[in-house]
Design a protein that fits this description.
- About 5% of the residues are buried.
- It is flat, with a radius of gyration of 26 Å.
- By secondary structure, the protein is mainly α.
- The chain has six helices and no strands.
Length: about 150
């Protein structure tokens, strides 16, 4: 019936030379057995990929808002298009960039807030760490990091 037709469709999709990024349907045991034989163990990767794509789709709510269109220099657009990953659209790249910049700004705001809170605490308690001590600690950490990089 209809279920068998979907299974056959999945198997046809899986049987192509490349494993698709998004699967047309969840891989069932027959599809996984087929993949195991055909691709020597890639079935688990396909299964993980399928469920990861499902989670990814559910991670973001339905898109109902827009970001204003942006006029840019043709060289900037070309540079952006040159770094797109396979199958990635310019719109997806811009959306990911906006999300990353939002996270960066939030982290920066939190960093400044922690610094201001620390300053306020130091002013209240009168306990400060001398700059020489701070710089000595940073120099020590830098030396340790350099030593780790040189170690085989």
């Amino acid at each position: 019936g209809e279920k068998e037709g979907k299974k056959a469709m999945c198997l046809r999709k899986y049987s192509k030379n490349s494993v698709p990024g998004r699967l047309p349907c969840p891989p069932d045991s027959a599809a996984l057995k087929f993949l195991s034989r055909r691709y020597e163990g890639l079935a688990c990767i396909v299964l993980v990929g399928h469920y990861a794509s499902q989670l990814q789709r559910k991670a973001h709510p339905v898109k109902t808002a827009t970001i204003p269109s942006l006029r840019v220099d043709p060289a900037l657009r070309q540079a952006a298009e040159e770094v797109l990953e396979e199958g990635e659209t310019l719109s997806a790249f811009v959306e990911a960039s906006v999300r990353a910049q939002i996270e960066r700004r939030k982290a920066q705001e939190a960093f400044v807030a922690r610094g201001l809170a620390s300053r306020t605490n130091a002013q209240k308690t009168g306990r400060y760490v001398p700059a020489e001590r701070v710089f000595a600690g940073l120099e020590k950490r830098l030396a340790q990091a350099k030593a780790r990089c040189k170690a085989p």
